[in-house]
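Bumping with the actual sequence this time:
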Amino acid sequence: MLYQIHIPVLLSLMASASAYWIQFNAESRCASKETLRSWSGSTSRGCQARFPRKASSAFVTNTGTSDDNTVVVFYSSQDCNPENAIARVESGCVGIESENLEIKYQSFNVIRTFDSARITPISKNEFGYQHGGIKLYKGVEYRWLKQLDGSFRGVFPEEWDDAILKQRKVPTSVS
């Protein structure tokens, strides 16, 4: 009887403490039937080093206990250096390694983001995006603009033409 009371309480406490559940897969696009490893946690867990077994993709599930200002970020460095971010995802499947593009994740963490209305997402994950492709980020639709450094920046679809002209240094007004 005592176990019947404490187990649901314990499970509810665990659920409220974890914001994300990540399943690492050996195959790209989360196609593997076998999960290499699972991880659950929130911002309080800090930077997590790469797991020993090679994973090509990760399926990220927002357990519903995170707020709108957290995302999971994968890095190509072991210290979760923001300059080495290769993927940023709130939920869904994300590619985290590609031998062709020489991208390998080395660490990940759950971070707080404080997006302003004019800051759009940026990703260096070339195999996760394509130039001009449309993809949702935090429930908002963006077209992905490939930048000179190889990263992709989310552009609001209604601002797409202006962003392309600006990147190519074409004047937007004719005098």
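The tokens above came from a reply further down the thread. Confidence is low (pLDDT under 50) at residues 1-18, 170-175.
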